[in-house]
Amino acid sequence: MAKFRIEAVFDPNSGHYFVEVYQEGEETPLVVGKPIYISQEHAMADSIEIFKKAMPDQPITAWQEK
Fold it and tell me: What global pTM score does this model have?
């Protein structure tokens, strides 16, 4: 099963967050979104929902650094 890392990044020009998606072990993002999220939490929650909808039969787990 492929593993991905999702990072929410603040864009100072727009004042919003965008998402970068990385494949496990890679340093260059596979996907870079547009700065449309008002918070890091919104960006991460929406990203997880997108993965869940795209792969409904796969277990989707979220891990947050504490």
Answer: 0.78
Closest by CA to 40, choosing from 62, 57, 18, 58, is 18
**21-44 burial, b if ≥16 CB within 10 A, otherwise e?**
bbeeeeeebeeebebebeeeeebb
Count CB-CB contacts under 10 A for residue 19.
22
Q: pLDDT tens across 7-51, in order?
A: 999 999 999 999 999 998 999 999 999 999 999 999 998 988 888
Provide the residue type at 66 as one letter: K
- Separation of alpha carbons 29 and 39, rounded Å: 20
